Amino acid sequence: MSSSLTKNTVIIVAETPIMNPSEIIPYQNLSVKYSVFLNTLLFLNWVEILSEDKEHFSIIALLNEKDKEYLPKYFLPPDAATLFYHESHLPEISEYLFKKKADINSKTIILFYNSIGFKLNDISRALNLIQTDEPSIVIGKSSRDRIVFICSSGVDKELVDPLFVTKRKNAEYLNAISSKDIFIHTLDGFLSINDFEDIKKLYIELSKKESLSYCSPKMHESFNDLFIEYKELLDV
Predict the structure, then answer these.
(1) Domain that holds residue 155
(2) Is the separation of the CB atoms in 177 and 183 below 8 Å?
(3) pTM score, whole prediction
(4) Scanning 23, 112, 215, 226, which has the fewest C-beta atoms within 10 Å of its C-beta?
């Protein structure tokens, strides 16, 4: 029992509904059906990566309550916790997380489901940068300056809530936490899939051999099913 308390926590977050076809915001050029499909693949890719090292991570899925009836039965591993939030509570999401986390003092990564491009080694690197003897945070960001994850010790309301208030815009987030005496590490070069331009980048990145380090052959096949459907637009 005690070993589970020493696990680091990874929280996979969807800021909006991602599976309910009546509630999702479809991606530009994609149908509702394929937008749900892409959301599902991005989320499942994270589940697969984290499941490779599940003895070191407790997984929490943080999803919009409008997805509750649309969550596939075997979407998450049996030992993962699922937390549904009401949209109006998102700016104060730390309250939800305080109730759910087994060990508030473990290191915590909050990552956004629509990100891709980092692997277990990057997660380990982020965790290793958090030292117990100095207040610190690791920010992972995309080439378009969107935050794709933060890593910190425990759940700090003053670090977590501004993430959602600033809509993950890195410059605005840094300004929001500027009053805190904290050491900030930044890792970049990751992808955040928010529009069709990002889907084009995803298409290019997944064609590279090195993408196998963060997207398995099985997941590649599933992404290819999507890419084939929109190949004419993606090849432009």
Answers:
(1) 2-195
(2) no
(3) 0.91
(4) 23
